[in-house]
Specification:
271 residues, mainly alpha
């Protein structure tokens, strides 16, 4: 049914997408999501509003509309009150970026400009990713991938412009916003997948003493992925320096891929 609706020529605007997604509102699922994403007063997701759509429903919308959806319409989705609509907007950006980041287009001038435009839009509206799933489903596939690719941002000529990229990530990391901080950490998922541990190690150390459990989980998770994808010896080196001061949750996540005996050793020696 959804494909029939969204293949219509008049479904190429944010307004039409929002109207469709609102028509799928599910009250019982909405209540479950409001609890799962901690939206009560005093919780990290306070104020986030849900329609009650499951992620596969949102992905189906993206699958159908993303190819021809105008980039200038995406901010309307990102600024919407509904969590699922904002997720739709971020996933459309992911789809558009990945199409311009294919191997054959990595050094294509037009593709570089289009990728840069998407990166700038993502950063401009980054605060709209105000819960962990919005961050985790998008940042590594856009910002994380961009870190590895040529760009015009940060210079007049195309290049990697690593100093500029670090400036962007440091700005996220040094923000007072939990979700921007999480972006600086989770974007390293992609760089570690591609064999570069530097971003993970830099931001794991920067966030090592963060006060929030969601950052403890992100730090441990990214360290685990770095060890798994790049080098377990690098992970062990990091742990030898920092395990004694790491939050228990971060350490537990970081060592999940190790055998039971080694995990026990790290947990016992953290004090």
């Amino acid at each position: 049914m959804i494909i029939e609706i969204f293949q219509s020529d008049d479904m190429n605007t944010a307004k039409e997408i929002i109207q469709y997604m609102e028509s799928q509102r599910n009250e019982s699922q909405r209540k479950i999501l409001m609890g799962f994403f901690k939206t009560a007063p005093g919780e990290y997701g306070y104020g986030d509003e849900f329609l009650g759509l499951k992620v596969p429903q949102t992905r189906e919308v993206v699958k159908v509309v993303a190819k021809d959806f105008p980039l200038h319409e995406v901010p309307v989705l990102l600024m919407n009150r509904w969590h699922e609509v904002r997720l739709c907007g971020f996933l459309i950006l992911v789809d558009k970026f990945e199409k311009q980041a294919k191997k054959r287009l990595e050094h294509d001038e037009d593709a570089i400009h289009r990728r840069d435009e998407i990166v700038e839009m993502y950063l401009e509206y980054a605060r709209q990713a105000n819960n962990w799933d919005l961050v985790d489903l998008s940042v590594h596939k856009i910002i994380g991938h961009w870190l590895l690719l040529p760009t015009y941002l940060g210079g007049t000529k195309v290049g990697l412009h690593q100093e500029y990229k670090l400036k962007i990530l440091d700005g996220l990391a040094d923000s007072s916003n939990l979700w921007l901080q999480r972006m600086s950490m989770v974007c390293s998922w992609k760089t570690s997948q591609q064999g570069d541990p530097s971003y993970c190690l830099r931001y794991a150390e920067k966030h090592l003493h963060h006060e929030h459990d969601l950052m403890h989980k992100a730090v441990g998770w990214m360290l685990r992925e770095m060890g798994n994808r790049v080098s377990m010896d690098l992970l062990r080196d990091f742990l030898r320096q920092h395990a004694h001061e790491m939050p228990r949750t971060a350490l537990r996540y970081a060592i999940e891929k190790m055998d039971e005996e080694e995990r026990k050793k790290w947990m016992e020696n953290r004090m």
